[in-house]
């Protein structure tokens, strides 16, 4: 395993991190814990979860794994988050998180899911920053971090407070253009940098032919090439992958074991091949999946990815029919209330995409 410093904290973290959002067998605690232990035995030390991943089951699984890691003498670092903003709410949640994780303190505690500067201002007014400082002084959290979905220069606003020691944000080979300003801001303050959705929520490995241009070696898979692209950026402290199955874990561990940095020419070549169709792809985080009209927005957005990737409407309607068994007519229920766009971590134009999908004819199954 390779390790990198997490900003100026003095802590080193594994280059490959374990994300707790995509367990394939979350109801099988023994199987999920076993996967985490295999990661730890291979040298993974950074384990990231959140209170609403599978309800509280992800944190509970992490707690069982951490207890076993301690018994076996395996090192680990805990990372979790809070969407709360008042001191009372944060403390109540943190108390429950410490119990679920079975730890006396959280190593990396994140102000979770900052999607707009207006929302950030409201959370500051509620006292989030003051509370975070208190929690660190009391030894309940060791490092204060922020999980942001802001793009461009907006992330600078979060870092001006001087309280955060690290940042977590979505980044992959196909959306580098939207994150360069974030990297500049993070590097300027020497902060730790963890990236999530490095494989586009599974989009990259699920479309190996389309993303084959990421490969510069014959002995690597497309997923390994996408990770190698990120590993080559020394501004990144750890790359979080959400593993659904142990085979995925082993594939990513192999990417670390065989890692050699891409050359500047290889990186430039990849960036040159990323055209318009790879921009603004949905990563499938599911935060929009609470439509008042009952529209299955994540499924429709997944199908819209296929339209962008393959460049034809039928790719969308075929995906809806054969993969999701959903009609484009579902999108016509949209009232443009804006709830989904407010929740979208990538600031995608969901409403206009619903209008576009609603105008399409359903794919005729033979």
Tag the structure with descriptive keywords.
TIM Barrel; two-stranded antiparallel sheet; eight-stranded parallel barrel; alpha/beta; 366 residues
Describe the structure.
With 366 residues, this protein is an alpha/beta fold. It folds into 2 domains: 3-273, NADP-dependent oxidoreductase domain (TIM Barrel), CATH 3.20.20; 297-358, no CATH class. Helices cover 42% and strands 14% of the residues. The chain contains 15 helices and 10 strands. It has helices at residues 29-41, 57-72, 87-101, 117-125, 128-137, 155-159, 180-188, 203-206, 222-231, 246-257, 264-273, 297-310, 313-324, 339-343, 350-358; strands at residues 3-5, 12-14, 16-19, 46-48, 77-82, 106-114, 141-148, 166-170, 192-196, 238-242. The strands form 2 sheets. It has an 8-stranded parallel beta barrel, surrounded by 5 helices. A two-stranded antiparallel sheet has the order 1-2. Helix 12 (297-310) packs across helix 13 (313-324). The longest helix is centred in the first third of the chain and has 16 residues, at 57-72. The protein is globular. The relative contact order is 0.11. The mean pLDDT is 89.
């Amino acid at each position: 395993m390779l390790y990198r410093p997490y900003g100026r904290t003095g802590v080193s973290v594994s280059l490959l991190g374990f994300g707790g959002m995509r367990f394939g067998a979350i109801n099988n605690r023994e199987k999920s814990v076993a996967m985490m232990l295999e990661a730890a035995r291979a040298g993974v030390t950074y384990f990231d979860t959140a209170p609403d991943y599978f309800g509280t089951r992800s944190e509970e699984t992490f707690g069982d794994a951490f207890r076993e890691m301690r018994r076996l003498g395996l090192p680990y670092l805990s990372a979790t988050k809070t969407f709360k903003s008042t001191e009372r709410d944060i403390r109540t949640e943190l108390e429950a998180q410490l119990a679920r994780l079975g730890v006396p303190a959280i190593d990396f505690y994140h102000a979770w899911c900052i999607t707009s500067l207006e929302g950030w201002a409201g959370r500051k007014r509620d006292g989030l920053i003051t509370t975070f400082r208190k929690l660190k002084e009391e030894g309940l959290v060791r490092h204060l971090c922020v999980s942001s979905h802001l793009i461009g220069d907006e992330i600078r606003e979060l870092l001006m407070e001087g309280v955060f020691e690290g940042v977590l944000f979505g980044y992959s080979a196909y959306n580098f253009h939207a994150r360069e300003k974030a990297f500049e801001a993070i590097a300027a303050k020497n902060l730790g940098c963890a990236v999530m959705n490095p494989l586009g929520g599974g989009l990259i490995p699920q479309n190996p032919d389309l993303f084959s241009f990421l490969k510069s070696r014959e002995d690597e898979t497309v997923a390994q090439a996408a990770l190698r692209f990120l590993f080559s950026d020394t501004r990144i402290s750890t790359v979080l992958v959400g593993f659904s199955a142990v085979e995925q874990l082993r594939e990513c561990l192999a990417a670390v074991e065989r890692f050699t940095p891409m050359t500047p020419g290889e990186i430039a070549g990849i960036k040159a091949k990323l055209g318009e169709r790879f921009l603004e792809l949905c990563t499938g985080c599911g935060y929009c999946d609470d439509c008042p009209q009952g529209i299955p927005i994540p499924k429709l957005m997944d199908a819209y990815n296929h339209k962008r990737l393959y460049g034809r409407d039928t790719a969308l309607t075929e995906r809806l029919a054969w993969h999701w068994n959903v009609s484009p007519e579902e999108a016509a229920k949209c009232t443009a209330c804006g709830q989904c766009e407010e929740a979208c971590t990538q600031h995608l134009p969901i409403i206009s995409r619903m209008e576009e999908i609603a105008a399409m004819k359903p794919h005729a199954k033979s």
